[in-house]
Amino acid sequence: MAVHADFAKVVEKMIRDALPAVGDRHPFHRKIVEGHATRDDLAIWAVQTYHRNLYSSRFASANHSRCPIKEVRLALLEVVKEEELAKPGAPPSHAELMVRFAEATGLSREEIFKSRPLNTTLVFIDTLMQLSEGHWLEGISFRASEIASPEGCALWHDVLQKKYGFSAAEVTWFKTHEVADIEHGNIAIDAYGKYARDEAEQTISIRAIERMLAAWDVFDYGVLRAGEEARQGRDIGFRLPSQAAQTTYAG
Is residue 125 one of the residues assigned to a domain? Predict the structure, then answer.
């Protein structure tokens, strides 16, 4: 493989091509943006994202422990604190913000906490943890994926209020990630540009990014399929809002 002089741009293009910010990148995303999702669909996505959020700090922590570059370690440490801690007077953790959105879809906190993640969500978590526990340039691939998130979060933040009737407070998670994911993504993009300089380092990085992007596909298709299975009466790991009240959101 040829060594790329500006590897940061190569990485960013890989991610933006695979995870475009527009709402039509994936069938499930189109369903949300077009206003065709049900309350159950939104609850499934929220619960799986909650389970994923629980591991975000662990990805960063494992990556931090393997990183030899002090400036990158310090940046990853800030991610751990942001994802994990909810100090008095500080904003709630990202996992807590997703719990609040899941509650707004019609679930109780107890149901969210006791829910069982989908197998595809577990595949996502296991893949990213494996990367995080490998070479530090592999682990940082998840942070790199967050550069594609802010525009999509801004779009969902607007759509969920206008087409589904959620309040601004209920969709704070999306507003928070409009800003936080820019910072998180830039940690990785800058690191790839500065420290993945030879063929071996760039090859390791590209393979990790490919695995990370595949994990995102698995996660999204898992959520989409779970909605289809739920409509057929199959157990997906928690009670759906429609099982308590036969109502749906319609755009």
Answer: yes
Structure confidence at residue 89 as a pLDDT band (50, 70, 90): low
Does 129 map to a domain?
yes
Which amino acid is residue 116, in one-letter code? R
What is the band of 247 on the pLDDT scale with cuts at 50, 70, 90? very low
Instruction: Give the separation between CA 26 and CA 158, rounded to whole angstroms.
Output: 18
Structure tokens at 119: 């197998």
Across the range 116-140, mean pLDDT stands at 97
Phi, psi dihedral angles at 86 (to 5 degrees): -135, 80
Domain assignment of residue 1, yes or no: no
Per-residue pLDDT band at 22 (split at 50, 70, 90): low
Digit-coded pLDDT (tens) for 189-218: 999 999 999 999 999 999 999 999 999 999
pTM: 0.90
Q: Which two tokens stand for residue 71?
A: 């400036």
Residue 48, pLDDT score: 97
Count of structural domains, the chain: 1
SS3 210: helix
- Provide the CA 251 distance to its chain's centre, in angstroms: 24
Does residue 52 contact residue 125 with C-beta atoms inside 8 Å?
yes
Place of tokens 């604190």: 81
> What is the CATH classification number for the domain harbouring 229?
1.20.910.10
Residue 200 lies in domain: 7-240
How many helices (H) and strands (E) would you count in the chain?
12, 0
Helix (H, G, I), strand (E, B) or coil at 88: coil
Scanning the structure block, which residue is given the tokens 């969210």?
112
